[in-house]
Amino acid sequence: MTLPSEPQIREEAERLHKLFSKDPAQLVQFLSGQIATVKTYAQVLVGLCGLTVTVTGFSGAHMIRAGSLSASLMVAGIALVLIGLILCLRTITRLHWVSEELRDDLVETAMIVIRRRNQRQRTLALAALFVAGGLTCYLSAVSVAALVVGNAAG
C-alpha cells in the first residue's frame, strides 16, 4: 500500500473543507470518525491475535507432539502473530486527539489528520499481513498435526 502524495493529501483536505464549509465542526467530527475507524480495525486485529494465543494454550501441546514440522509451523505462526500484535498495539496506544492538531486553517488541520490516518492505516495493513501469515502457519500446523494423528491412528 503506497501512501498518497502531499498534493493528493492537500486535494483531499481541500475537498473535505469545501464539503463541510458551512459547518466546520462537522469536518472535525468527520476526521475524528476516520481516526476512530482505524482504531477499531486495530482492535479487531488484536482480537484475532488474542484468539490465536488462547487456542495455542489448548492445542499447542498436540501440535508439538505431532512432530517438528507441526511444532515449527506453530512457532512461526505465533511469532508472526506477535509481530502483528505489536504493530496493532503501537497504533492503538499512540494517542493524539484531533483537537490537539486544530489550526486556524482547517485545510491544514485536515492534512495533518489525513497524514496520521494514512500512516496508521499503512501500519495496520502491514500488521494484517503478519497476522494473516501467522494464522496461515498456525492453521498449517493444525492440519499437519491432524494428518499425523490420523495416520498414527489408522
Q: How many structural domains are formed by the residues? A: 1
Low-confidence segments: none
Q: Sketch the major β-sheet.
A: none
Give the beta-strand count: 0
- Measured as a percent range, the helix fraction is over 70%
Rg on CA atoms, Å: 22 Å
Give the assembly state of these chains. Answer: single chain
Report the total helices: 4
Mean pLDDT: 90
Distance between the termini: 47 Å
Strand residue percentage: under 5%
Please explain how this structure is put together.
With 154 residues, this protein is mainly α. It has one domain. It contains four helices and no strands. Helix 1 crosses helix 4 and helix 3 packs antiparallel against helix 4. The radius of gyration is 22 Å and the shape is elongated. The chain starts with 5 loop residues before the first helix and ends with a helix. The mean pLDDT is 90.
Please supply descriptive tags for the structure shown above.
4 helices, mainly alpha, 154 residues, elongated
